[in-house]
Specification:
It is a single chain. This protein has 285 residues and is α/β, with parallel strands linked by helices. It has 2 domains: 138 residues, Rossmann fold, CATH 3.40.50.2020; 129 residues, 3-Layer(aba) Sandwich (Rossmann fold), CATH 3.40.50. 29% of the residues lie in helices and 26% in strands. It contains 8 helices and 15 strands. The strands form 4 sheets. Strands 2-1-5-6-7-8 form a 6-stranded parallel sheet, with helices on both faces. Strands 10-9-13-14-15 form a 5-stranded parallel sheet, sandwiched between helices. Strand 13, helix 6 and strand 14 form a beta-alpha-beta unit. The longest helix has 16 residues. The radius of gyration is 20 Å and the shape is globular. It binds ribose-5-phosphate. The site of ribose-5-phosphate has 14 residues, from strand 13 and helix 6.
Length: 285
């Protein structure tokens, strides 16, 4: 198999190359004087199984991904698999107000038009998978997060909302500890109230896990509730650390440690997903 990274997928591609004993392709990515992007894969592609790896979070990532997929398709691979460590634009997966675009649908369909099979890591809502005309599967990162916190003496794995409760439950099962979730109640468009179940947390060590940390508002509020309830140690984790609005700097004081996966590179992306993704690719290719 030949692994072809886009710029945002370089680290995962290098890790997957080691895990799968596969070559990571050399490529040329540059901008024309007018700002348009140029992509060329400097490898023999015809007759090979190819996995293209990269995110779609920033607009520029999407352009690079579309050009990379077309470059590969034009060169006639045997099978073209795409791995999206972070699939951006997936939070709008349906029309909430008349006149809106379904961003997750338009990008799924555009990207799938060049692919034979696609994988995504912890997509925000699995409804998006159904928009793809080719097989599109979610890879939920559980073992890698559990492994990172295995020696921390965690008492509870907590999800900040019910949407993430299955993830928290699965991680708690691997760690052999208890779990619960907070109930996020939207009071109005700007205010959210968090309801906490009646659990004794005095002297306990809590691992908070979410799918995404964006502004950090949800996870920081949850961490402060855990402290108010007497938890001695609060650890924060998530699959995707976007850290907008300077939240990377603010989140430091909210927890004993912040550790997210490396789907998006940041100072906190200390948990590698390569093993779990490689496992899936071995089964799928
Ligand atoms: C919400 O449904 C998600 O699971 C996350 O809780 C949310 O995206 C986090 O966003 P923020 O960091 O901006 O509070």
């Amino acid at each position: 198999m030949l692994i072809i990274p886009t710029s945002s997928g370089q680290k995962l591609s290098d890790d997957l190359g080691r895990e799968l004993n596969a070559k990571v392709a050399d490529k040329t990515v540059k901008r024309f004087p007018d700002g348009e992007l140029y992509v060329r894969i400097n490898e023999e592609i015809s007759g090979h199984d190819v996995a293209v790896v990269g995110n779609t979070s920033m607009d520029a990532d999407i352009i690079e991904m579309l050009l990379t997929l077309n470059a590969v398709r034009e060169a006639s691979p045997d099978e073209l698999t795409v791995v999206f460590p972070y699939f951006g634009y997936s939070r709008q997966h349906r029309v909430y107000n008349p006149g809106e675009a379904i961003s997750s649908k338009v990008f799924t369909q555009s990207l799938a038009s060049s692919a034979d099979r696609m994988y995504v890591v912890d997509i925000h809502d699995e409804e998006t998978l159904g928009y793809s005309p080719v097989p599109f599967e979610n890879i939920s990162i559980i073992k890698s997060i559990a492994k990172h916190f295995n020696s921390y003496g965690i008492d509870y794995v907590v999800s900040p909302d019910d949407g993430g409760s299955v993830r928290a439950e699965e991680i708690s099962r691997v760690l052999g500890v208890k779990t619960f979730y907070l109930n996020k109640v939207r009071v109005d468009s700007r205010t959210v109230r968090m309801e906490v179940p009646d659990v004794e947390l005095k002297g306990k060590k809590v691992l908070l896990v979410d799918d995404i940390i964006s502004t950090g508002g949800t996870i920081m509020k949850s961490a402060s509730i855990m402290r108010e309830k007497g938890a001695t140690n609060v650890y924060i984790s998530a699959v995707h650390g976007i850290f907008t609005n300077n939240s990377a700097a603010r989140i430091k004081d909210a927890a004993d440690e912040v550790a997210v996966t490396d789907t998006i590179q940041s100072e906190y992306s200390t948990i590698s997903i390569a093993e779990e993704v490689a496992e899936r690719l071995r089964g799928g290719l």
